[in-house]
Design brief:
373 residues, 19 helices, elongated, Serine Threonine Protein Phosphatase 5, Tetratricopeptide repeat
Length: 373
């Protein structure tokens, strides 16, 4: 299966950030603190006022004012109960401001403002760290700090925070899912699959958890369980081109060429700008060991379309284009395409590309086996 590290990284970040808005936010979350942790807002007027302002705050500036007020109150004479409440109120608002920073960073990243997005991500992380320091039992802050660590590429720290989050809130599926995402990124596929399984148990209608567990099984070479998960993902998201391509890849690895071809065609119909759908279709039509499913002309067209959509800096797309050219007996172009792919490929894939290059230089096409990816 083609899981481009660059595209997967974007999906990971956006998927994690999307969980920041789930639960524990706004007035209802704050009142939950007062009700569940304090029975009622404190009677002392300055503390009550801080609580009310926190309840109404919706912008970074408003939350910053509440944070400043809580910091000021910490330096005054308060009863033990009120002092404890102010610290936990401070942790709550710090977490909320961190969420706003993170959401703003996501919007800027999507708009191309990478530098400012990175600055906001750093502010979000600082708020989450402060929130956890003030209230280590606040599971949402721990979880959100893990998200920020993941955005920063600090995966081991992210795993520790998600592990702590599932201890504090074991029925929160996002924490299990996000720990699975990071473990997948670290190559810990068995552990990630177990996390996705728990996320599925908590949220059986989540297409993303089935998809990600299917990816784990695929990486482990367990194609039948992967196919079962991708089938479920297609059922839950029938209009998703990505779900169809994933299932097509599993079919292809099980030598179910007809079913794979059908899924790739459907994916292209669902999303005519999916480079991965075109790439997968081109790979099948160029390299399938069963001649009935090879089509030199269409394979070249699909591979060229994939490169056109995504660009020429993706080694997998260039590899697919080379395979399509070779299948069409255009070996000089196949060699040229693969020579462009080699410098872009990670170290672990270079040897495989070198072997294909030798085939094309010998004017022979590449044919996949049932387990090739």
């Amino acid at each position: 299966m083609d899981r481009s590290p660059r595209l997967w990284r974007i999906a990971l970040v956006l998927g994690l950030l999307a969980t920041l808005a789930c639960g524990g936010s706004g007035a209802s979350g704050l009142m939950g603190i007062a009700a569940a942790q304090d029975a009622a807002a404190p009677a002392q007027s300055p503390v009550t006022a801080a609580y009310q302002r926190a309840q109404q705050a919706t912008t970074v500036d408003e939350m910053s004012e509440v944070i400043a007020e809580c910091e000021r109150l910490r330096g005054t004479e308060l009863s033990e109960a009120n002092a404890d409440y102010v610290v936990r109120l401070l942790a709550f608002v710090q977490n909320r401001r961190g969420e706003l920073y993170a959401n703003q960073a996501t919007d800027l990243q999507e708009q191309g403002g990478a530098q400012r997005a990175a600055e906001l991500d750093a502010l979000a992380l600082a708020d989450f760290e402060a929130s956890v320091a003030n209230d280590p039992s606040r599971w949402k802050s721990v979880h959100n700090r893990g998200v920020s660590y993941a955005v920063q590429g600090e995966y081991e720290k992210a795993v520790r925070d998600f592990s702590r989050a599932v201890e504090l809130k074991p029925d929160y599926p996002n924490a299990w899912f996000n720990r699975g995402e990071i473990r997948y990124e670290l190559g810990q596929f068995e552990e990630a699959a177990r996390d996705y399984t728990r996320a599925i148990q908590l949220n059986p209608q989540d297409e993303g958890s089935y998809t990600s567990r299917g990816h784990c099984y695929f990486q482990l070479g367990r194609y039948n369980p992967a196919l079962a998960d991708y089938n479920r993902a297609v059922q839950l998201a029938p209009e998703s081109a990505v779900a169809r391509v994933n299932r097509g890849d599993a079919y292809r690895s099980l030598s179910s060429w007809q079913q794979a071809a059908a899924d790739y065609r459907q994916a292209i119909q669902l999303d005519g700008r999916s480079s991965r759908a075109y790439q997968s279709a081109a790979w099948l039509m160029a390299t399938c060991p069963d001649a009935r499913y090879r089509n030199p002309e269409l394979a070249v067209q699909a591979a060229e379309r994939a490169v056109q959509l995504e660009g020429r800096d993706d080694h997998r797309l260039l590899d697919t284009l080379a395979a399509a050219y070779a299948n069409a007996n255009r070996f000089d172009e196949a060699v040229a395409s693969l020579e462009k792919a080699l410098p872009l490929a990670p170290e672990g894939e270079s040897e495989m590309l070198e072997r294909r290059l030798k085939l094309y230089q010998a004017r022979q096409p590449y044919r996949q086996s049932a387990s090739s990816q």
